[in-house]
Design goal:
Blueprint: E1 2-11, E2 14-24, E3 29-33, H1 40-47, E4 55-60, E5 63-64, H2 70-77, E6 80-83, H3 95-105, H4 110-123, H5 140-152, E7 158-162, H6 170-187, E8 190-194, E9 206-211, E10 214-220, H7 230-236
Helix pairs in contact: 3-4, 3-5, 4-5, 5-6
Bound molecules: adenosine-5'-diphosphate and magnesium ion (MG).
């Protein structure tokens, strides 16, 4: 479980996170939605320790990372995988090297790296014949899978995804969502996904809406289309902000 309390963040006197309170349940998939520039990535980066909050608390599995010493934080972050926006593979490395890079850099013996890389590729439904291919030889969807396999190498319990499907065609979006769902179930993960693809609601458990620097809604993603919460109603239908108009017009 990730518990966020009264979280605030300012950059140069501009408040981006304005008091976020959010409980992200363990072993479920929670989607964070919100307009571009709302501070979704900034929120995720605070959870993973890439950005230091101005104030507030972030408690991951009972450990408050805003109070812990650096090396204790690193222990917590070892459980967390992060798939960042536009996650790119290194073009000069093959799939084996891209997926295994952290293991190779840490001096893990080749046979072990190969075993782990093969295992993670299988988890993202990739065949081993791509092991020695280069990113330029792979489709967009395959590259995303390889990126996911790379995140899985450290066996995270929590995965944070920042817009994992941006820039993909609708069919590939569906395939990646199914894969995320599949991994979620197989590995019993806690997944947090920033996404603009409302199709993900089908696979997720919860939706949180970030608006004006705060979580304005948290609820069940399966019943999201029936929600009468005004923020959610307008956001998921792409309606401009302001009072809800009566949508059903009879002729
Ligand atoms: N390191 C930073 N320094 C200053 N401003 C930042 C920094 N990171 C993000 N911001 C600002 O915070 C706002 C929210 O950014 P971001 O979290 O990336 O939005 P999004 O919801 O689209 O992911 C933007 O106005 C951005 O310019
Ligand atoms: Mg972002």
């Amino acid at each position: 479980m990730i518990e966020i309390k009264k979280l605030k963040k300012e950059f140069n006197n501009r408040w981006i996170t304005k008091g976020v309170d959010l409980v992200i349940p363990a072993h479920q998939m929670t989607v964070i939605i919100g307009r571009s520039g709302e501070g979704k990535s900034v929120l995720l980066k605070q959870i993973i320790g890439l950005i230091k909050p101005t104030s507030g608390n972030i408690i991951i599995d009972g450990k408050d990372i805003t109070l812990l010493h650096k090396h204790k934080c690193e222990e917590v972050f070892r459980k967390v995988g992060y798939v960042f926006q536009f996650a790119a593979l290194l073009d000069s490395l093959n799939v084996y090297e891209n997926v295994g890079i952290t293991l190779i850099e840490n001096g893990v013996p080749h046979d072990n790296v190969l075993r782990i890389v093969k295992e993670k590729l299988a988890l993202v439904n990739l065949k081993q014949d791509i092991l020695y291919k280069y990113p330029s030889e792979l489709s967009g969807g395959m590259k995303k899978r390889v990126g996911l396999a790379r995140t899985l190498v450290t066996s995270p319990e929590i995965i944070l995804y920042d817009e994992p499907t941006t820039g993909l065609d609708p069919i590939t979006v569906r395939i990646i969502h199914e894969l995320m769902f599949d991994m979620q179930k197989k590995l019993n993960l806690t997944s947090v996904v920033i996404s603009h693809d409302i199709e993900i609601f089908k696979f997720a458990d919860n939706v949180a809406l970030l608006q004006d620097g705060q979580i304005k809604f948290f609820g069940d993603s399966k019943t999201i289309w029936e929600s009468t919460n005004p923020y959610i109603y307008q956001f998921i239908r792409g309606l401009p902000e302001g009072p809800i108009k009566n949508e059903v017009q009879e002729d």
